Amino acid sequence: MGFSPSFSCSAMGALILGCLLLQASNSNAQLRPDFYFRTCPSVFSIIGDTIVEELRSDPRIAASILRLHFHDCFVRGCDASILLDNSTSFRTEKDAAPNANSVRGFNVIDRMKAALERACPRTVSCADMLTIASQISVLLSGGPWWPVPLGRRDSVEAFFDLANTALPSPFFNLTQLKAAFADVGLNRASDLVALSGGHTFGKAQCQFVTPRLYNFNGTNRPDPTLNPTYLTELRRLCPRNGNGTVLVDFDSVTPTAFDRQYYTNLRNGKGLIQSDQELFSTPGADTIPLVNQYSSSTFVFFRAFVEAMIRMGNLRPLTGTQGEIRQNCRVVNSRRIRVVENDEGAVSSI
Q1: Backbone phi, then psi, for 318, in 5-degree steps?
Q2: For residues 211 and 204, what is the distance between their CA atoms, to the nearest angstrom?
Q3: Long-range Cβ contacts of 246-250 (<8 Å, 24+ apart)
């Protein structure tokens, strides 16, 4: 039996949210939720089944796929450039400092793409596949559903240098965070606060946490915003001079669930990384009321998250004859293969 999504909020709430956001998703005429309706109607089922199967052995994969999508979109838009391996023409974004030995899930993406190529050859782009996979990953973890705008094509190059500068650092203060988001076109406080809510599940390595615990900003003291009890717990998990690759839950309360607990943690001084806690602990910040709102209402958080995800997914998409539809997400197509797409989204090769 194929993947069949079930709503995590009430049926009425989901219906209202879906209607509101269907209108929002259609605001970008280049992308539309029904793009594969005729050419690959099984696309959601194939992607969903692949994730469900992987979740049986890897409960982290949902958060990892969402993170892959974020790290793709922040570097020249959502074009699947992060999935490309090294070539003679460019250096892979996987080697950039924010991604090296950190982003993961590429083997799952490979299996997903192989299944789609068997069902719908040369039809579904890796960029759209990753966007759909992130939405299904959120849904399977208890988060919201939304109509994903589709029709992206894949980049034929990677952007190693840009990946080193465009992706927000876990050590950023609020000013730096806002600048990083604004640089890619996400200039609303709600974009920053809602998308940061993706840290409501998944894990981070100790190397991104340890400076807060022992030598915050060169003070040789812990970050003063850390809850004392949480500080003790984190020092146990991430000892000074310990193994920096040890993993720690972003949310120690509901570590695999996509929910609003992340924001409650921030209010309690229990944000895992500095850039998260800055949203609530920066004096007078306009992000504080949003943290309070999302902490108090699942519906309000989900609505803001969906709106921000759609905005992020619409950043600089390659459409029409731009880019290509990769057959293997790791490599650019052979130049002997040219994909032609008609107005209905049907594709053929020449």
Answers
A1: -85, 125
A2: 13
A3: 246/205, 246/206, 247/203, 247/204, 247/205, 247/206, 248/203, 248/204, 248/205, 248/206, 248/209, 248/272, 249/202, 249/203, 250/63, 250/199, 250/200, 250/201, 250/202, 250/203, 250/204, 250/276
User: Model's pTM, two decimal places?
Assistant: 0.88
Q: How confident is the model at residue 70 (pLDDT cuts 50, 70, 90)?
A: very high
Where are any strands of DSSP class E within 87-237?
A: 203-205
Instruction: Out of 60, 67, 69, 71, pick the active-site residue.
Output: 71
CA atoms within 13 A on the CB side of 135: 26
Radius of gyration of the chain (CA): 20
Q: What is the pLDDT of residue 60?
A: 95
Structure tokens at 126: 């890796």
Which tens digit of pLDDT belongs to each residue from 181-190?
A: 999 999 999 9
**Distance between CA 63 and CA 200 in Å, rounded?**
9
Q: Residue 199 catalytic?
A: no
According to DSSP, residue 299 is labeled H
